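Handover notes (outgoing to incoming on-call)

Open items:
1. Nuclear transport regulator (ISS): sequence verified, structure written out, both below. Nothing else pending on this one.
2. Nothing else urgent.
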Amino acid sequence: MALEQARAALSALHTSPSEEERRAADVWLRSFATQEGAWHRLLALLADPAATEHERFYAATALRPLAQRQKEPVHPDAAPAAVQQLAQQYAAAAAAGSWAVGNPVAAALAAVAVRAQNWPAEQLVPQMLLLLHSALQGAGAGGNSSSASTQLAAAVHLLSALAEAACSLDTSMHPQRREAAQAALAAAPEPLAAVQQALAASGTVQLQVAALQLLQTWCTLGPPPAGAEAAGELLWQLHLAALDPALGSAAAEAVAALYGSCCPEPGGSSSGNRASGSKCNGSGSNGTSEQWEQRRRVLLSTLCGLLPNFATALQQALSQAQGSSSRQVQLLNAALSMLGAAAKAADSQAQLAAAGQQAVADAVQLAADVALLALQHPQFDVLLAALQHWDEQLERWNALSTIGGGSSGRRSSSADGGGGSGGCTAVGAQQRQILLGQLCGALLQRMTLASHLPPECLTADARDLPDPVQQVRREVADTFRSATECLGVPAARQQLLQLAQQAQAAWQAGGGWQECECALYALNLVWGKQRSAQPDGSAATEAQQAAAMVAAALQPGVPKLAGTALTLLGGMAEQLPLLEGTEQRQQQQHPQQQQPLLPQLLSLLVQLLQQSADDKLSRNAATCCSRLAAHRPLAALLRLDAGGLGRAVVLGLLRAAAGAMPPYMVIAIADALHRVWRAVGNDRFAAWLRGAVLESAAEDAPWRKWKREAQEAAVADLLSPQCAQDARRFKRLLKVMTGGKKKGQRVDQPARGS
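Nuclear transport regulator (ISS) structure tokens:
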């Protein structure tokens, strides 16, 4: 009766036009699979010759969680019959080519076999394969070539299911049984033989992909698959398969898994396993653990020895793929997947003997070369894969700096186990610095804006750039920060200053401004890392060089360049006061030199604030003023001014608040003015504000429409003791005087950081 109800519910689920009936059927079927006795009912439904395909599929998928969790299937008296029944049904599905049903049945069979105590752990693989062979014979998969292919495919899928069942935390078993099962599976030679046999079969791509997935799954057990270190021909075949159009992705993942199995598991760690922590690590036997570590080293040396020939084959494949972007993407993604794992394994085994050290160093170099090449590919997916490779490599190098007491404060997952470097890397310091220099150059090249972008995209507002360009810049900028952190921020900043000076000279000589803008953009990424509480000569020199470049870039005719320069200038508030002492000494030595940089910068800021024709540029200038005025020492330098420049700054901010700024920017402008007030004192700020409002303002200023008495009253209100103590009151009165927000107008505030 229950089976009839199940069939009716399945029929309603698949054929009923009523959504309510389908939903009710789904709820009933979920409940049916958890009822007492569901195991036997589902087995009966699966074995029923009259069952439809979707009925068998439901029974198979419902049996899997029961096999993983329930005690009934693994009871010593019930387990042999359960395994026999499942093996028969799996063989029948495999013989019929119904892998949608066969794979969940194989998972249920593997879960029962791994959990049950009826079979010693070391007999799991041979016993299950023998049982499968008998079941396939009974299902009619005899001795012809198609039957041999079916037997091999069934064995491959069952072996994958055994490894997954032993590693998955969804499979409930005693920890000792899990550890014994994993160790026994890791020592079994049958999986590698099955992979070898499947790859030798021609014209069976699906079987070959399944075999490659088996190899990848088997590596999750922890140690390398038994016999892998001696299977040089198979390993080379796998490397070549990674360049095959049909097998490339699966082969690359399998080879990456082999490299991953070469990484040691310090302290019995299980990080990195798909089961979130159940790798076999050999902690139960020191002898076994030492043997596994030796096998890891031997396998890594063998794999790295294949990489020079693989690099040649990859180069040939890329040459043949010229004109086919999709093929190039496939090749580069496969190579990055493999070589990223190779670099990680090489770093984890950096203490190999001298004969193996050069091989692992070459592996890291080859991975870096391919990743540098991929950084220039126009396809965004390839760029992301290359950036991910570099992020992981930089993380290991930064972890080395942290462990070794370096300047970097970042901690990486690779430093805490799970195949990390443990304080070593495969390449020396000199080679690492060379690679970092090449990486920074490639990243800068990728961040440079294209010359063909339309003018409407090249405004002072970074949000006007096309979304793909913004996305590339954000992703590349994150990796660039990590690279400069590893290279050393002071060294990176000095190199960027030299590069920016060269790019600026080229621009002023008639070249494009894009490289200059990119250099300033990159300099802004690393400038915030300088937080020197005790200014030294180099910091003052760097601040002077950067300020000179910013002053040259603040040109209204190139709004994108000017906007980037304003962003950098706003981030230099802490270092700009260093210019005062430096320029005073230079003025004493060279009295006839041009205007000092700091007043020159402030004058340029005022000019940009007054760019009523470009509200985006004036908005950036107002934001920069706010950031500069927020730094008290810099705001205090305005005391040195006789009044004209300070008055101009105040007037520029007032004009911006009056027209060029959206209403929400009045808050930033008011905050900047209030900070300047606190820095320069009541008398000087009062003189500047009165001069700006009552004497210097243009006819189109909102307050010029008022009578003289009203203007004087507004200035008196702004300078009142209440406003001096309450910045919010000052802001409200400033909005009234500058026109404020018009009724019915709605302006969305941009996202923070844009």
